[in-house]
Amino acid sequence: LLDPIDHFVKRELRCAGYVRYVDDLLLFSHDKGALWAAKREVQARLESLRLTIHPGAHPKPVGEGIPFLGFVVWPEARRLKRRNGVRFRRRLKVLTSAFEAGQLTEGRLSSSLQGWLNHARYANAVGLQKALCSTVSFCRVSAR
User: Count of CB atoms within 10 A of residue 139's CB?
Assistant: First the structure.
């Protein structure tokens, strides 16, 4: 569905820095005015597909951090969004309670925990991973 947008951004807007994953789009430029113009043009093109841009989407310096795919990305680091860590901490508490009550197998608990750890390992979040693993006896944090 968004393939025409990819071609539009690369061929017509000639945006040198462009990233898209599913429905998340990032455009990069040294010129803030060019980014505002590109946003208007992409927005118009998306409207022809009956799609909209999130109201909070606007050009901003990468030094402020860019929320993308559950992380906040800076040129030198990647951090998990705070709400993702909080949400998983709550979920892990529910899962361990269910495990201790015999309502959940160790394999199911382990797979849920390992799935989240595999996501979190792409961020600079080793401390958070270790803190969460300290609550579960069979958890190990691997460095990237």
Answer: 17
Q: Long-range contacts made by residues 110-114, C-beta under 8 angstroms, separation at least 24? A: 110/138, 113/139
Structure tokens at 110: 């382990």
3-class SS of residue 79: strand
Q: Given the DSSP bridges, would you call strands 17-21 and 24-28 parallel, antiparallel or unpaired?
A: antiparallel
The reply to whether the predicted model has a pTM over 0.85 is no
Contact 131, 85 (CB under 8 A): no
The span from the CA of 53 to the CA of 73, in Å, is 20
Residues 93/109, Cβ–Cβ less than 8 Å: no
Residue type, 25: L
Q: Are 144 and 121 contacting, i.e. CB atoms less than 8 angstroms apart?
A: yes
Per-residue model confidence as pLDDT tens digits over 48-79: 889 888 888 888 888 888 888 888 888 888 88
CA atoms in the 13 A half-sphere facing the CB of 25: 23
Choose among 72, 78, 5: nearest CA to 45. 5
